Amino acid sequence: xxxxxxxxxxxxxxxxxxxxxxxxxxxxxxxxxxxxxxxxxxxxxxxxxxxxxxxxxxxxxxxxxxxxxxxxxxxxxxxxxxxxxxxxxxxxxxxxxxxxxxxxxxxxxxxxxxxxxxxxxxxxxxxxxxxxxxxxxxxxxxxxxxxxxxxxxxxxxxxxxxxxxxxxxxxxxxxxxxxxxxxxxxxxxxxxxxxxxxxxxxxxxxxxxxxxxxxxxxxxxxxxxxxxxxxxx
Amino acid sequence: xxxxxxxxxxxxxxxxxxxxxxxxxxxxxxxxxxxxxxxxxxxxxxxxxxxxxxxxxxxxxxxxxxxxxxxxxxxxxxxxxxxxxxxxxxxxxxxxxxxxxxxxxxxxxxxxxxxxxxxxxxxxxxxxxxxxxxxxxxxxxxxxxxxxxxxxxxxxxxxxxxxxxxxxxxxxxxxxxxxxxxxxxxxxxxxxxxxxxxxxxxxxxxxxxxxxxxxxx
Lengths: 233, 217
Known about the structure:
The complex is a heterodimer.
Chain A lengths: L29 E3 L3 E6 L2 E6 L3 E3 L2 E4 L5 E5 L2 E8 H22 L5 H14 L6 E9 L3 E7 L6 E2 L2 E4 L7 H7 L6 H18 L7 E7 L2 E7 L11
Chain B lengths: L12 E3 L3 E6 L2 E6 L3 E3 L3 E4 L5 E5 L2 E8 H22 L5 H14 L6 E9 L3 E7 L5 E3 L2 E4 L7 H7 L6 H18 L7 E7 L3 E6 L11
Antiparallel strand pairs in B: 1-4, 1-7, 2-3, 2-11, 3-12, 4-5, 6-7, 7-8, 8-9, 9-10, 12-13
């Protein structure tokens, strides 16, 4: 897998601040330090994300929805600066909607991914955004595209991103096999996100999942007490 | 974008590395990769041994600056053998870990070295201790360290179970090291593993081509 969004680690923000009179959540930028994941299966894609948005050490939103609709069967998973990714997603949504009307048919996932890449690459110095674009179209079925910080574009069968993703590369490498079905993908995504949320301070809350196929989009939420659990040691 | 800071702040030869130790039913496995690099750009050794014996049934793995770690271990070995003579019995694993911790803590401003200590003694059986960079000492059932360890936290959390058999634990350790070496560019080479039980010590070396492969390679 390509090295997706290597987040500025939380210890890059000042831990011992000289300015302790002002709380860090009033100085720090809002960030979706996060864990996001997308998996292709035959007939669609499964995407998932945690739900924590932080400003410094304060959790600004513990039930964030990081799975953003771009078009009927195309979603993106956002990681990095919350403001940057929201802005880019809005712009791409608009561009894609317009393009779809011109074409008079549903847009391709590859088109959406390229629009993301165009914005992320052109403004790479100003932006901090790591995005996974995933969806279904008639031409190529389920597809996952990775647009990490810097503005590269690559298609992968499985992609993880965000600060929590580093902790689950090993788990993903050993547990993913080509040819999984939708339920296996959902289980794999939920397990990987749960493991990452346990280890990454910037990821947590609930797990939001969505599966996208020809029939449409099915969304679900796994609450804190129902998260997959592994042996505690 | 900022470089991902792992061992790149360490000057000189650094063991960007993956080390781990895990307790199983009746003993402990401790292991590491074998790569030493300078700043992540040049591999200065492909076959360095990072699992050092500090006493008959006590081994250490080092992470961080290679020079610092070697110096600390040399000093710790001599302290420990003296202590063992004074006590007229083999040292406890926690004694070895404590000696390392004292050195790391007292010299925390100059040193950049962390250790995993694993071994077997007659008082508490198999044990694993972690001495972190600043000199904290804690005991754990399973622990990982080094730059490559970030990639296998999920795998270790999911796969480690207490009271595994020796074979299960060896397979678990080999898999974990292989996965980390596959993702971390400053970890690699062969997997050095040492199995310590009441009966004795066994070295297992898994060369690069015999490491488990996972389907995306």
